[in-house]
Amino acid sequence: MHAEPFPRWAVPTVNGGRLNAHLEQLHAFGRNPQGGVSRLAYSDADRDARVLVQQMLRDAKLDVSIDAAGNIIGRRAGSDPSRPSIIIGSHIDSVPEGGNYDGQVGSMGAIEVAQTLGEAGITTRHPLEVVIWQNEEGGLWGSHAATAVLTEAELNTVSRSGKTIREGIAFLGGDPAHLERTRRAKGSVAAYLELHIEQGGTLDQQKKQIGVVEGIVGIKQWEVTISGFANHAGTTAMAERRDAMLSAARFTEMVNRVIRATPGRQVGTVGRIQAFPGAPNVIPGKVVLTLEIRDLDGKKIDTLFARIKTESAKVGAMNDTTFEFHQFTDNIPAPTDLRIRAMVAASARELGLSHITLPSGAGHDAQDLAQICPVGMVFVPSLKGISHAPTEYSSPEDITNGANVLLHTLLKVDAAF
Asked: Angle at Cα 131 formed by Cα 140 and Cα 141, nearest 5°?
C-alpha cells in the first residue's frame, strides 16, 4: 500500500452550505405538489436538470461531456496519466412522486468533492471522473450501457416517460448508434465510489451517522401465471371451483412463510397481482402476479425460489390450479471491495463519525460498475427509513458528513490503488 500523498490533517473538508444549496437548486426541476420531485428519466424535467448539473461540473473546473449513452461526465486529469480513472457519482432521475434525496445526494456530493479538491489545489494520482448516470430508476440503464452490450430488445424497452431507451438516450444528447464508445473494459477503471441515502431505517434507528455498505443485494423477479377455470360466481358451488385467485392468496401467504423460515436478511415480495377476467360475478380463471426475492447471497435466492416453486405445486393441488413461472429480472449480488470498506470505516473514524456495516437492499449503479472494477458505497441516514416518497429526508448535517467521508475515502483509494 502506498503512503498517503499528504498528512491526514491536511485533508480539506467540503463546503456543506454549498452542497446543500446545490441540492435545493436541483429540487426545483420536476417539483411535485406533494413536496418531492417527479423527474422521470427522459422527461423535460430530467433534461433541464441536466443543464444545471453540467454547469455545476464546469464551476468545479471539470471537463464536461456527454457519452454515447447519455451519461454526464466531468473529468479532471491526474498526476499520473498512465493510471485508470477513479469514478465517483450517482444519478438525478427519480421515480414518479419521488423524493429530493435519492441519487441526488450522491450526485451533488460527488460534484462537491471534486470542487473541494480543486479549490484546495489537490491533484489525485488517478484521473478523476464525476459521472451522473442516466435512468437509474428505470433499470440502471446508463451504468449498464457503460459495462455491458445493450441488446436491440433492451434498446426498444419503453421507459416510464413513454420513450424507448434508444429514444431516451438520443433525447439526452447521446448516440444510441455508437454505444460501443461508452463501454469500459474490465480493469479500465481503478475504482467506483458512490454516496447515497440508505433508503432504509437501520442508520436512523441505531442513531449511526455513516453506513459502510458491504454489498448490493441480488434481485430476481418472476411473472407467475396461475391457471384455473373461469365460471359463474353464483352458480358454481364452492367445492367445485378452480379459483385462481384463491391459489394466488395462498401463494402470497406461502411466500411470506418460506422467506421468513430461513434465518437471514433475505426478503420476498408479491408486488403486483391481476385477476382475469376481472369481473365481480366471475370466478377468476387466471391470475398473473409477480414474485421478487432479494439477498446478498445469490445461491440463497435460488434455494428459496426452489422451495417456493415446490410449495406452489402443493398450493395448486388444493383446488386444481397450475403455476407457471417466467423470470424477467436477474441482477446478481454485488459485494463491495473489502479494502474500500475498510477505508470508508477508517474515514468515518477519522472524522469522528459513528458507523456500522450493512447491506444495500436497493439496487444502485455501483451494481453494474462492480462487474468491471472494485466498488465502495457510503450511506447516510434516511429519516424513518422513508425513500421513493416526497417525505424522504436526510439532514444537511448528515449529507455533509457523507460527502466528507466520500472525500477521505477517495484520497485513500487514490493513494492505495
From this structure: 15
Residue 102: which of 403, 391, 327, 412 has the closest Cα?
A: 391
d(CA 292, CA 273): 13
CB crowding 254-285: b at 16 or more within 10 Å, else e: bbeebbeeeeeebebebeebebbeeeeebbbb
Q: Does the pLDDT of residue 1 top 50, yes or no?
A: no
CB atoms within 10 A of CB 231: 16
Grid-cell match 464536461, residue found: 64
- DSSP code of 14? -
Q: How far apart are CA 321 and CA 148, in angstroms?
A: 40
Beta bridge partners of 65: 73
Instruction: Give 92-151 pLDDT, tens digit per residue.
Output: 999 999 999 999 999 999 999 999 999 999 999 999 999 999 999 998 999 999 999 999
Structure pTM? Answer: 0.87
Q: Judge contact between 404 and 114, C-beta under 8 A.
A: no
Cell numbers describing residue 27: 429540487
